[in-house]
Amino acid sequence: MAKITRKPAPRKAPVPKKKAKPAIAKPKDPARKSLKATKPWTPAEVHEAFSRFRKANPQPKGELEHVNPFTLLVAVVLSAQATDAGVNKATRALFEVADTPQKMLDLGEERLREYIKTIGLYRTKARNVIALSAKVLSEFGGEVPRTRAGIESLPGAGRKTANVVLNMAFGEHTMAVDTHVFRVGNRTGLAPGKTPLEVELGLEKVIPAEFMLHAHHWLILHGRYTCLARTPRCEVCLINDLCRWPEKTV
User: Fold this and answer.
1) Out of 18, 26, 103, 178, which one is annotated catalytic?
2) Are 109 and 130 in contact (CB under 8 A)?
3) I need a labelling partner for 194 at 20 to 30 A (CA). Which of 49, 96, 137, 205 fits?
4) Residues 56, 133: one domain?
């Protein structure tokens, strides 16, 4: 019987592997680069920076308009996710008719909304202002509480609100961290942190007590008018020689 010889099956050509797409680098937040700063500020440098701020602006003021601690509290609650200028435009007329908790309650939520309708989230904020007014009357005798816990217990008020009111109304050495202070603390390397609380505690740790009353105003103003988010004005910065930001333009 004839032997059948089978031809080996042709080998398949190897399928070329697809090249992996190069990873697209995510844009880095310039304010966060300083988180990896290798050279923290020295106490002498911190003192020098705030000495310059004090010399340039000895008595800095907050830009939210108010006439007493209660109106300051209301203004800060309204300023969440809004500009100070926008809040001031709405509250000038409001505070003429409602500058106490009782007057705010008498005004009522519906009429309050008409005064603040140009401010973002005005419906929720109107509800909070009426609720906090009622609580200030019922639990604090009509006076804004002078403790952080007391202020934070009010509807619409958080840690930043408490820090602003304690500092501006009662002269406490608190550090209110908004977007501007958060950016300055990180970008300069003065007090890097991943959260506002980290930056707050870092700033309180390094800033000498003699500057703490006005420190948060100096940092807010610096972030608002000099250390801008997109295009920082390094050429006019008072502390550009001390700043740790690797991309500063001077």
Assistant:
1) 178
2) yes
3) 49
4) no
Same domain, 75 and 156: yes
Is 178 noted as a catalytic residue in this protein?
yes
Token pair, residue 202, equals 């870092």
Residues 155 and 135: beta-carbon distance below 8 Å = yes
Tokens of 80: 């969440």
Residue 237 amino acid letter: C
Does 121 reside within a domain? yes
Residue 22 domain-assigned? no
Determine phi and psi for 205, rounding to 5 degrees. -75, -35
Residue of 227, 55, 79 lying closest to 165 (CA atoms): 79
127 and 181: one domain? no
Answer whether 0.90 is exceeded by the pTM: no
**In degrees to the nearest 10, what's the CA dihedral of 128, 167, 86, 73?**
20
Q: Indicate which residue of 55, 106, 135, 160 is catalytic.
A: 160
CATH number of the domain residue 50 falls in: 1.10.1670.10
> What does the alpha-carbon distance between residue 21 and residue 12 come to, in Å, rounded to a whole number?
26
Residue 23 in domain: no
C-beta separation of 185 from 49 below 8 A: no
